[in-house]
Amino acid sequence: xxxxxxxxxxDSNYHGVTVGAIKAPHGLILIDSxxxxxxxxxxxxxxxxxxxxxxRLLINLDAHPDRTMGTxxxxxxxxGHDLITLAFRNRPTTFKSQNSETGSAWEILPSLGPIxxxxxxxxxxxxxQIQWGSFPINLxxxxxxxxxAIWVDIPDEKVLFLGDAVVREQPPFLSHADLSIWITxxxxxxxxxxxxxxxxxxxxxxxxxxxxxxxxxxxxxLTNITNQYPDNKVPTDMVEKNIHDLxxxxxxxxxxxxxxxxxxxxxxxxxxxQEPSILPDSYED
Length: 285
Fold this sequence. Notes:
CATH class: Alpha Beta
Order of helices and strands: EEEEHEHEHEEEEEEEHEEHHH
Number of domains: 1
Number of strands: 15
CATH topology: Metallo-beta-lactamase, Chain A
Number of helices: 7
Radius of gyration: 18 Å
CATH superfamily: Ribonuclease Z/Hydroxyacylglutathione hydrolase-like
């Protein structure tokens, strides 16, 4: 576990996602969950070393299976965006893990057994504030990377949890992406408002302003790629070439080549042909 400030802790040692904990007098506010049952038990044991109130609240930063599969095992109230609840409605109530092709972290793990999704008991549309002590915790809807993507901002501590908005030394997930909104949100991180902030990626832990700029550059390249083709859909015969070109941006172990290649392959193939989400009226144009 890594201490970011005296009240905020993260752990990037679990498979797939970076988890976090915010210590408050009322209790612990948790950010996402590990995937594997043994990692969930380890994380829960680690949390016993953090003083604070007795209550527990878990925030899901988006609907991605890597960060929502283990939510039920944390055994606490869950908070998330309205679109996470909608995403869960399109999944089986009980999910049996099996081989898939999205390049997600959970796919390369041994059988996880049946998964029961845990939709948020508390949800919101645009913004929500949690007051569990002396400093506010702000949840903001920040679409772009995935369904129901949010940022968790603790302004008094100058810490911002970004989820998959910035991922370090690995390609992003693209199948639910809105590149233009994603880029716009990332450019806001370069403004005076976020000067001196600690940025926490949902995959990789602490990231820098330079990592943000690199993420913007990669998303702009992806935008240029998709804009070349009708309906912004990359032809099958061009997908492999673009995978090769995009992987040059990352310094990753060769053991990750297959996983990351498949992540980009799935994303480039599906990002403009997935079924449209059913949105609440407040999200309609």
